[in-house]
Write a sequence for this structure.
């Protein structure tokens, strides 16, 4: 992977007071420990500055996020793997449980952890093109954690979620729109951001405390479930990393990604 040029995230506030959080880890924004830490810090900053809303997007022209960095799971240092996992849990708790308004301008592919980040926002606009979005973990021989599944069940009907999760379904933009995995499609990134802003403006006349408490109450179930089971969830993740069969599946998957990239 190329050496990192520039900061891993960019956090800016536009003229309307909307925070734009841009992931910037070329080539595919795979979520390693350092990127997750930076996303977490940015979410803290948005909350601390009492910014009314945030749009999550990517600096890549074709990938929103490729999901978790597989190299964090392949033959890992277990201490780092534990910090990696708890940082991912923290990011999800901060984003899914945020009181401010959140929207994702999905300007490219969003598999697995990339799909999770977008589903943790309240509104999704995806750029048209040959991009796909979904939770594909079972295709890698791994099981999406319960809170990934909860997030999907919070976004699309449970029957569709079960089918998508078990079959590792990656949705095209049109399919995602039909099932409600995204709310709108857009012609390009600028259009996606405009549409996210339009969604955010819908709340101009809604008292912000009532909105925030309603959001947090409707999201309480999945949040409490992870908060109660954090240690067990981390132990399961570490146990999974120690399983030789899982390591073999990950090795094969990495090889297939490298072969595809070399073509
Ligand atoms: C009983 C219950 C127990 C439960 C215990 C817990 C279980 C743990 C669960 C963990 C949940 C996992 C979540 C995840 O997010 S796993 C990651 C899944 N992601 C993917 O499968 C996406 C893979 N990538 C792609 O499909 C494509 O890269 C993509 C469509 C995103 C972009 O395609 P593009 O053609 O633009 O780019 P390339 O494929 O050429 O890739 C460029 C380089 O990037 C490398 N790459 C890609 N994705 C990843 C990744 N996720 N991690 C690390 N590296 C990645 C790719 O290999 C290329 O590298 P090189 O240039 O070096 O060859």
């Amino acid at each position: 992977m190329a050496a990192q040029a520039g900061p891993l995230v960019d956090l800016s506030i536009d003229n309307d007071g909307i925070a734009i959080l841009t992931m910037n880890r070329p080539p595919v924004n795979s979520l390693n420990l350092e990127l997750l830490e930076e996303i977490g810090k940015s979410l803290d900053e948005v909350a601390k500055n009492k910014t009314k809303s945030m749009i999550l997007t990517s600096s890549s022209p074709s990938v929103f996020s490729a999901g978790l960095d597989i190299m964090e799971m392949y033959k890992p240092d277990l201490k780092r793997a534990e910090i990696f996992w708890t940082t991912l849990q923290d990011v999800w708790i901060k984003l899914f449980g945020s009181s401010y308004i959140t929207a994702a301008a999905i300007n490219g592919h969003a598999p697995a952890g990339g799909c999770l980040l977008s589903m943790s926002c309240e509104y999704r606009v995806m750029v048209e093109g040959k991009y796909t979005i979904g939770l594909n973990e079972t295709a890698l021989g791994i099981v999406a954690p319960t809170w990934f599944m909860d997030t999907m069940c919070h976004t699309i009907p449970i029957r569709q979620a079960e089918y998508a999760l078990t079959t590792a379904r990656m949705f095209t933009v049109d399919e995602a729109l039909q099932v409600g995995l995204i709310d709108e499609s857009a012609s390009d990134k600028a259009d996606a951001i405009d549409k996210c802003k339009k969604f955010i403006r819908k709340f101009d006349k809604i008292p912000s405390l009532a909105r925030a408490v309603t959001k947090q109450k409707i999201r309480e179930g999945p949040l409490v479930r992870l908060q109660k089971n954090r240690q067990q969830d981390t132990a399961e993740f570490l146990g999974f990393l120690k399983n030789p069969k899982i390591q073999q599946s990950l090795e094969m998957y990495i090889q297939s990604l490298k072969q595809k990239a070399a073509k």
User: Anything to note?
Assistant: The domain at 9-262 is CATH 3.90.226.10 (2-enoyl-CoA Hydratase; Chain A, domain 1).
